[in-house]
Specification:
With 836 residues, this protein is an alpha+beta fold.
Length: 836
């Protein structure tokens, strides 16, 4: 006996009437029990009604998997109402993860070969929605036959199904290549034939012959007549000519695009039809098509956009095809209405096509000007698209993009965070030697008022641009000081080292720099990078600060007590980091040799920090106190001004490598310095030491005291290896094997950037086989400067006691040209010397 259950409408009303979630679950559980009972004992003629209720339950998020097999039964039924519900259930309840989806392959194959258009449409929709790779391979032949059917309704669905098949199984491209070529040679735009008319025109009598009772068939016939009268379609319907409707043409272009993206053979084949595609697009732009396919006065923008995408693929790296498109793209760019969003979409695709093919120089300038007009659009989305596109073009068409620099700078004041971020990236990319002063003024003004989440990027960008295009050293110092004063907590980690390097190399600006930094420190001690640089500079050039001879700025007399009090204030401030206190303590120690007064105050401060809780600060204070007590005669020599250290970089490394062959052999002190550098590299490994070159002369007291053996001959160097290169970003590996620990391998990762845009958020991760041990040291930074600027280095320590063959898997993630990049690759060609 069939258990009575609710109708679909009653079920919906009862679920909506539930006041709590518990009541809703109770109603659904009760009805699902009725549905299960109906599936077991109910009338097959009513099965589709039970499934429609189950679909509603599934839409609410409740489990409905027990209806999967019932869907398969309805699909195999001969009744159209059952097939419609069954195919809908298959699309909702089945996917590739369920093995049951393979059971409907035969049913779909039979329905595709029946010749009944509504049934073929249902089968094609289901196949394009949930067809797996196995189903696509089995049914590709049937879909190919339907591509050239007289009915536009079936052809359109068959084309979309073919697109799904190509995406699932790219090797099926050869199956659909001939039908696509035939579809393009038919008429392009005919009058669109509505879906209801197509259904009625081909299945009237067949539906009346096989659907339901005579009374039901009469109702169907009446419905057909009534619908035709509403559609002004005569009875019986006229013959539908096999013209290529706009929907079929759009589907055909989409299918060809998929083929060209996945098959080089298809790409070569369809490059021959570029003139035909150009003629279709020219017709759309000049004469248009039926008004029912026009949007805001733009003739079928969806079709235009799809044709432009296909032309972009066909013209990429192909001179002949690009030459054919130039005149057409210029015509589209000048004749498209930009007052509506549909026209802007067509124009944007035109710009992308111009920039991606080998177009003429004048056409590229026109494309950049179109993007410049987009910047004045009131729609934020269009402005964002324009900024993103200009950022991609700034390297290849720099002069054309420079014309729109004032508009780009205005976009910095956008309230939308995504727009202001894109405008900031583009503004930094537009900085060059001729406009650096004006652009830095705009960017510094923006830095003062920009949102907190943009300050780090803005500050880092200003510092990099100033380093690359600074007209004078004084201007460079002033720019960095302004950034440190405004957003010191947001600058990069290497900002302090870069500024100290810059000040140390500008001897004529020592007095100017120390006075500027002293004044900035007296006003604000909260910006830690600024405080660190100021403490370093006061310690190095404090004597110049006390002299007061400054021609460039207003003279201000500073006495020794004020300087010491300021440094003590930094030491006692709760805002000071341990590293900042270390800078201040070292500055006080250096001032002990530069001030003419008594050093008792400095000695007292140093002795206080001898019991500091911070171990590094305590060690530094104890060492300084020992220097005062035991080695006071050496204090002046030890605390001399720091010598200028050459800043490293790719160019410096190349010059050093070139001059290495002609250089004389290193002396003992030079060799000791090199060994000290190796000790620094290996300092984290434990007790590994590099013995110095010994002098057995009588004067070598230190050697006799330590009684160390002579240094063994150094092993042959391991050649460097380039493992990655993309758009100017290059990754090189250098290898060092300490002689005293052959199982240890040091790999120095060096990332360089020869492109015109900085690489930001650079992260390098590695993995090795389980038999090896890997330790990753912190990188030197996360920004790789453009044009061969500062590289990013990172040290990998690999312990290989069994001397197993070394394999390395690397993952790189970074942002370049405004886009996020992730690369995962394996390095199998490491030198044999690195592991044997």
């Amino acid at each position: 006996m069939v258990v009575p259950s609710l109708k679909l409408q009653d079920l919906i009303e009862e679920i909506r009437g539930a006041r709590t979630q518990a009541q809703e679950r109770e109603v659904i559980q009760k009805e699902c029990a009725h549905i299960r009972a109906s599936f077991r004992d109910g009338d097959p003629m009513l099965r589709h009604r039970q499934l429609t209720k189950l679909f509603y339950v599934h839409m609410l998020g409740y489990p409905a998997h027990f209806g999967q097999m019932e869907c398969l039964k309805l699909i195999a039924s001969s009744r159209f109402t059952d097939k419609r519900v069954g195919y809908l259930g298959a699309m909702l309840l089945l996917d590739e993860r369920h093995e049951a989806h393979l059971l409907i392959t035969n049913s779909i194959k039979n329905d595709l070969s029946q010749g009944i258009q509504p049934v073929q449409g249902l089968a094609l929709c289901t196949l394009s929605t949930m067809g797996s790779a196995e189903m696509c391979r089995d049914l590709a032949t049937e879909v190919e036959k339907l591509l050239l059917q007289p009915s536009p309704y079936v052809r359109k669905k068959a084309i979309l199904t073919a697109v799904h098949m190509i995406r699932k199984v790219p090797e099926l491209s050869n199956v659909f290549l001939p039908p696509c070529a035939k579809l393009l040679h038919e008429r392009h735009h005919g009058k669109a034939v509505g879906l209801p008319i197509l259904c009625f025109s081909s299945v009237d009598k067949r539906i009346e012959n096989w659907m339901g009772t005579p009374a039901y068939r009469r109702r169907v016939a009446h419905t057909h007549r009534h619908t035709r009268s509403r559609l002004s379609c005569p009875w019986p319907p006229p013959f539908t000519s096999p013209t290529l409707t706009p929907g079929i043409l759009l589907g055909t272009i989409t299918l060809i695009t998929e083929l060209c993206e996945r098959s080089p053979e298809a790409l070569r084949h369809f490059r021959k039809v570029v003139p035909q595609l150009a003629q279709i697009l020219r017709t759309l732009v000049t004469t248009g098509c039926s008004t029912e396919h026009s949007i805001s006065g733009v003739s079928d923008p969806f079709l235009q956009v799809q044709i432009l995408r296909l032309l972009r693929i066909l013209g990429r790296n192909h001179e002949e095809s690009s030459e054919t498109m130039n005149d057409l793209l210029a015509q589209v760019a000048t004749n498209t209405d930009t007052s509506r969003n549909a026209g802007n979409a067509v124009l944007f695709e035109t710009v992308l096509t111009i920039m991606d093919i080998r177009s003429a120089a004048g056409l590229r300038v026109l494309a950049v000007n179109i993007l410049g007009r987009f910047l004045h659009n009131s729609d934020r989305n269009i402005r964002y698209v324009a900024l993103t596109s200009l950022l991609r073009l700034v390297q290849s068409d720099h002069s054309a993009v420079q014309r729109h620099r004032p508009t780009v700078v205005e976009c910095l004041q956008e309230t939308d965070a995504s727009l202001s971020r894109r405008a900031l990236e583009l503004s930094l990319a537009l900085v060059n030697g001729s406009n650096v002063r004006a652009m830095m003024q705009e960017l510094q003004a923006f830095l003062e008022s920009c949102p907190p989440d943009l300050r780090a990027d803005c500050a880092s960008g200003i510092l990099l641009a100033a380093e690359r295009f600074a007209p004078t050293k004084r201007w460079h110092i002033d720019t960095i000081l302004h950034v440190l004063t405004t957003a010191g907590t947001h600058v990069r980690d290497d900002a302090v080292a870069n500024l100290t390097q810059l000040i140390g190399g500008a001897q004529e600006l020592h007095a100017y720099s120390v006075r500027r930094l002293y004044n900035a420190l007296a006003e604000d001690i909260s910006q830690q990078p600024l405080v660190q640089v100021a403490a370093w500079c006061i310690g190095e050039y404090g004597d110049l600060l006390l002299e007061g001879n400054f021609e460039e700025i207003e003279p201000l007399q500073v006495d020794e007590e004020e300087v010491l009090a300021l440094l003590e204030k930094v030491l006692q401030s709760h805002m000071s980091l341990p590293a900042t206190r270390g800078y201040a303590l070292t500055a006080l120690m250096k001032l002990s040799t530069r001030l003419r007064g008594d050093n008792n105050r400095i000695r007292q401060v140093v002795s206080i920090y001898g019991s500091c809780l911070d171990m590094e600060l305590q060690q530094r204070a104890v060492e300084y106190d020992t220097l005062f007590r035991k080695y006071d005669h050496m204090r002046a020599a030890i605390l001399e001004k720091m010598p200028l250290v050459e800043q490293g970089g790719p160019q410096v490394d190349e010059e050093a490598k070139e001059s290495k062959e002609g250089a004389p052999a290193p002396t003992e002190s030079q060799a000791s310095q090199l060994l000290d550098l190796l000790d620094l590299l290996d300092g984290a490994s434990g007790n590994a030491q590099h013995p110095p070159l010994l002098d057995r002369s009588p004067g070598g007291a230190l050697v006799h005291l330590l009684d160390l053996p002579c240094a063994p001959p150094s092993p042959a160097p391991i050649p460097d290896l380039k493992v990655f290169e993309r758009e100017g970003v290059q990754l090189n590996l250098s290898f060092i094997r300490p002689p005293e620990n052959p199982a240890l391998l040091l790999i120095i990762i060096t990332a360089t950037n020869s492109s015109e845009s900085d690489v930001t958020h650079f992260i390098c991760q590695a993995a090795v086989p389980k038999s090896l041990q890997l330790q990753l040291q912190a990188p030197s930074g996360n920004t790789v400067s453009a044009r061969g600027g500062f590289p990013v280095t990172q040290l990998f320590r690999i312990l290989n006691p069994n001397k197993a063959p070394l394999r390395l898997k690397l993952r790189l993630t970074y942002n370049h040209f405004g886009q996020s990049v992730q690369e995962i690759f394996e390095v199998n060609n490491l030198p044999v010397e690195s592991w044997q």
